[in-house]
What does this fold into?
Amino acid sequence: MAGTYGGEKRWRNGGVGRWRPGTAEILRLHYQEKLERTPIASSLGISYTTVTRTLHKAEAKGGEELLTLADPELEALFYPVRPGPKARVELSEAELDKILGELKRRGVTRQLLYREYVAANGEVAMSYTSFCERIRQHSKALRLSMLLEHDPGAEMYIDYCGDRVPIYGRSGEVAFYAEIFVATLAASGYTYFEAHPSQDSASFCAGITRALEFFGGTTAAWVPENVPRNIFTDDDGRTTLEEFEGVHVAGNPVE
It folds into this structure.
């Protein structure tokens, strides 16, 4: 619905933006025509409260002298545009990749990385919740893009976990730190793991043997991931897995 006054059209509900009466017209009717608030409200089709608020603002800002200002100037004076929230510094994909890499390091936490992010960006830094959500979304996107198809019974992945686990003696002291051997069936994700006193060829082969007993059979290929070369081969360069016949060993050991 539209109303016309003071030579200008004002939209009450259907127009674009928030409707408000022409400030200049309210001031003209009050200061020049000497109308009271109720007749002004009736003539302009607005509420008495709106007229009262406008005139209170006018008295605080100069009263009748405001009639010399153009309508856009009055609108800016009475209804200044509030500054929006500051743009937050987003994390690029490269930065998110770096953060995910840092989180794999021992002792690195999201709280620690967030403090570094805030120190670098100050007031425009996003909240901790948003920071963690960006990391979660990026990690999820990477997992979806890196999904691999595996045929049942085709591959078994074998490796040691990165962190060692303390093994305690009867008196409560740490007796030694165990290496965790892990074997996983690629298609199902079914996993077997056990603790070893160290990463050596004998323990490695024994772990594979017990994993096969646990799974009730073997796969067509075994994939050693990041297995150190000293475990994977002996001094003559032969693979320590040669004792297992009929299985293809895929992948290369690392130095």
Remarks:
- The chain is about 40% helix and 15% strand.
- The beta strands are 2-5, 8-11, 155-160, 165-168, 174-185, 191-196, 221-224, 248-249.
